[in-house]
Every structure is written in structure tokens, then in C-alpha cells.
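Hey team,

Filing this mostly as a record. A colleague (T.K.) asked me to run one chain through the structure pipeline before their review meeting, and I want the input and output archived in the tracker in case anyone asks later how it was produced. No errors, nothing strange. Just documentation.

Input sequence:
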Amino acid sequence: MGKLLVEERKVVVPGEHIAEGMDYLPAQWTYRKGDNILAGRLGLLAVNGRALKIIPLSGTYTPKKDDVIIGKVIDVAMSGWRVETNSAYSAMLSVRDATSEFISRNADLTKFFDLGDYLVAKIVKVTSQKLIDVSTKGPGLRKLYGGRVINVNCNKVPRIIGKQGSMVSLIKNSTGCKIIVGQNGIIWLSGSPDQEVIAIETIKKIEKEAHVSGLTEKITAYLEKKCKNKPAVMPEEDSEENSEEKPAAKPAANKKGEQ
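Output structure:
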């Protein structure tokens, strides 16, 4: 019978034995050696049923097919848009993957997405040469208006989202902010200025303390204290009628000491 040797969410180091027996299966950043499963890198142990994986504590984003990311338009070409992915590689958003609407050959593509615009996009292809294609056709994939954009360590994204979205839902419900977390470590949020500040501070706190046990309880108490005299007011959803009048998302001003 298999035995788990390390508690979930505990920090493990490369080569550390995390399970014995055949009941558990190695997943991302873990490997089997005989009857044991060992850690392949420094990080937090995550248990998903029988699968054991490591959530790295550091490292840069590596684009993967089916990831939903937040990207920034950095170039407008004849056949589409070049999108920054917060990695060493940019992505291409072709006209056919941008919208179901017909776009003529000589159309001004900046009317759809312009330089500096932020997009929620899905990675649909990654070649062995790291050529990346993204799409904005699909539920939730779109251009972003207003709000703020912040960067976090992409390896902390699962902790910020939480199990089944529990952590990010806690922040949304407490602050009234709309929040979209890209798997590339880019986060967009929109709400009242005061609530945006609280949401950003909370996200940075989670990023910093991702390895701490009992984090959900700590964040709950933190938000209760911060939002005690600031009732959450859910911002109105964007509508097609007024979305074009809103300014593009802007980067959040980093406070002293933030990366």
C-alpha cells in the first residue's frame, strides 16, 4: 500500500522522497525511482487524486498549448497582431483567430486591436521552434478595457487562483473587483481605486506567502480587516455599447519594494 511521506503544500527539494509504493503517480516535476516517487525540483507538493506534482517557487513562464494568458499587443502586421506573452517568446494572433467577423484584406486592424491593448487569449499552438499562435475566439477571450494590470510570479498563479478558484473568488467577493488571472503571471483587475489597491496588496501577499500553510485563513482574516469599512461594490460589466469609450488597461503602479 502506498504512503505519502510529505504533507501537501509543504516545500520539497530535488531528490526528496515524497511517496512510496505504487498507489501514487508521478506528474509534473516528480519522477519514479523504484517504488518511490521523488521531487524533481524545489517547490510545493500538490496532490491531485493519485497524481503528485511540484509547483515551482521560481522560474519564468513557458508557453503551453491551451494556456489562457493575458497578453499585450506590441505590433500590428498585415495579417494580424504580435502579442507579448511575458516570456522569451512573443505570439501571433492572426486575423482568422481574432474574430468571427469578416475582415477585408485592406482593413485597418488597429480598429480591432491596437498597440498597447491587453487581451485575454488562448494559446492554440506551440511549435518546437517556439512559434506561438493565440486566439481570442472563445468564451471569456477578449480585449480588456480599463482596469489595472500587474505581474506576478507565474509559478504562484495556482496559489492565487486556489482550488476550484476559491482564493481568487475570495478576493473578488471581498473587494468587489473583477479579476482575470492569466497563466503567464499577468493579472487584470478592475474596481474602485480603493478596492483595486486592496486587491493588489492581497495578491502580492499571496505571491509572497504561497508556501505558507493555512494561507486561506490568513488571507480571509487579512481581507476582513482591510475591507471592514470599505463595503464591496461590484463594478458594472462591460457592454458593447460603452466599451469603446473606456481607456485601455494600464499597468498598476508598483509600490516601493515590489518587483
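Quick notes for T.K.: The longest strand covers residues 68-76. The chain is about 20% helix and 30% strand.
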